Amino acid sequence: MAQVLPAEGDLRRVIGDGEGVPDGEVEGLSEADLLELHRQLVLLRTYDERSVVYHRQGRIGTYAIFWGHEAMQVGSNYALDREDWIFPSYRESAIGLLRGLPAATILSWWRGHPAGWWNPQDWNVASICVPIGTHVPHAAGLAWGKKLRGENTCAIAYFGDGATSEGAFHEGANFAAVMRAPVILFCNNNQWAISTPLSAQTAAETLADKAVGYGIPGVRVDGADVLAVYEATREAVARARAGEGPTLIEAVTYRTAPHATADDPTAYIDLERVEEERGRECVGRYEAYLRRLGLLSDEAAETVRAEAAQRMRDGIAAAEAEPPADPSLLFSHAFAEPPASFESDLAELRRVLGG
Amino acid sequence: MAELTLVEAINDGFHVELGRDPDVMVMGEDVGRAGGVFRATAGLRERFGENRCVDTPLAEAGILGSAVGLCMAGWRPVCEMQYDAFSYPCLDQLITHVGRYRWRTGGAMAFPLVVRMPYGGGVRAPELHDDSPETYYVHTPGVKVAIPSTPADAKGLLAAAIRDPDPVVVLEPKLHYRTLRGEVPEGEHVVPLGQARTVREGDDLTFVAYGSMVPLAEQAADALDASVEILDIRTLKPLDEDALIAAAAKTGRVVIVQEAPRTAGYGAELAAILAEKAMLDLRAPVVRVTGYDVPYPYWQIEDAYMPSVERVVDAARKLLEF
User: Fold this and answer.
1) Active-site residue numbers of B?
2) Are A137 and B68 within 8 A, CB to CB?
3) Of B74, B96, B104, which is closest to A149 when you measure between CB atoms?
4) Which residues of A touch B108 (CB under 8 A)?
5) Could you say which of A140, A247, B73, B124 has the lowest number of CB atoms within 10 Å?
């Protein structure tokens, strides 16, 4: 099967393999930081695994799985300040959890319930972008706009390898570069866009190479190495805050789960490769790293998992406790001042519904 | 009152609105150094600085997409699309985000941006400098659409669009940028969105038009030996439905004039509303005079494409004899 394999040599890594490859370390991270990264990885992993179960139980709708992508989300977010803005794609649907956004809100979004609305300004997390790559210009615009106001705020836009084929990615990246906007363009290259392999997506040797065309740095990092992702993003953030403009980070991993709950990858994916990649998935690798450092006991790991599981139980319970959405919500937020037609449409709807 | 051309009125409106609100910024291709290819933004960069009148890369989706982010950072961006048919790449952002973002935040975030562009034909221009794309915009939920037909309205509707808390698309009749002069109030001048304008009163039949078709409707009315009511829609969304129904009811005979292709054009919406809500006031079928369902032609034959005085007069006579 045609595949562009990550070149082992140019991927930045920190975590070794416990055998031939030695562990590195990231300067400035305390033991508390290392354990917090673990807690966040487990939180996202738990969210993802529980969501697949909730989907099978009919409790949420079609769900975009991010199993194996947690290190990219946790590591990059950890390099940001709370004031910095996150522009997630659907693959990062739960990244707001890392800022305190309630699980119930995100689960409600996947339940197709308006309780899944959130105010982006409360968390500096933009709404989940469903169309591919179209939020890249938003991140560019926000970062540019903040810079014009003299605020030292960054924005990060997450997108996949497939998104780099989109015009919106190109226009957003170019805009950000021209305006020297403090943006991190974070590509989670999992090498598959549903069933389309990277080799059918681009003729470029790497996605980071595309940065050259925008006149910005491009960095490649092991996407299953939370510390390498953190370090690369921290450098990009420093560049952005210094007024040096955007950085394109290509975090390379391999999609070992279906694109979404509606997808059956057995028709197109190399299952042996999937098994091999699952063996180096990011949470397990990081836990092994912490154990080698003597920082993680079985008991502590279990506590972290139990806390995450409880957060999910509370989240789904709260999401399911939401009363049915009122039809008036169709009309209430499309405009600041609804046109007269909305009132008559709603009255007509209520009459027909008998409400 | 100053007598200005339509494009001078727009420029005047920009100077007033940027002077009034420091959050308003203008962005687009050639809007800064050149002052816009039609000079609509002339002098803004010099007066308000390069950060509030921004020459952007040549990227319509990037312009509107960045504007979404600028709104999130507290700005009120006014985006120029250089020509009607060059605006199509921005439809991606308009449909997938601009019209939806307020709703998807439960009303928590506002997107007070403006998209404005010169539109329409009759200017002997190359292909794709002549389109009337209003239906694409009107059909997009969450955005408002206005089209002025006079210099005063061009200034006043632009001001209303800039001050509006929601996204507004303003299409400006480029045919009349410099061929139409009129009295324009000085200083702040706002024409509220959602209010049609009675151009002239009449008893025998009603012409309904907007933008560059309003002056044409006036010429056609002058050519008829009949008393013609003319309604300028001004804001296509939200529509001043009461004014439309009243103007139709007054004469019972309605000709809708629209430059865009006929099928599913804005005139079809007007006709449908009259069919639903003015049936008993009508004395004749509602008739449309429109462009044809063909690509906008090369300019040597564009006069045959455009609704003309002759076609409007012909439609009017048929209605009067119905």
Assistant:
1) 129
2) yes
3) B74
4) 117-122
5) B124
Identify the CA nearest to A156 among candidates A76, A211, A94: A76
What is d(CA B153, CA A151) in angstroms, rounded to the nearest whole number?
37
Task: Give me the number of domains chain B comprises.
Answer: 2
pLDDT in tens, A69-79: 999 999 999 99
Q: Tell me if B100 is assigned to some domain.
A: yes
pTM: 0.97
Within 8 A by CB and 6+ apart from B98, the residues are B64, B67, B68, B111, B113, B140, B142, B143, B167
Length of chain A measured in residues: 355
- Kindly state whether residues B135 and B259 are assigned to the same domain: no
Note the ipTM here.
Answer: 0.96
B positions 22-51 inside 8 Å of A (CB): 51
The verdict on B154 and B238 lying in the same domain is no
d(CA B141, CA B147): 17
Q: Which residues pair with A336 in a beta bridge?
A: none
Which stretch of DSSP H or E encloses residue A225? Answer: none
CATH of A8-324, one of 3.40.50.970, 1.10.8.100, 3.60.21.70, 3.40.50.300: 3.40.50.970
Domain carrying residue B315: 197-321
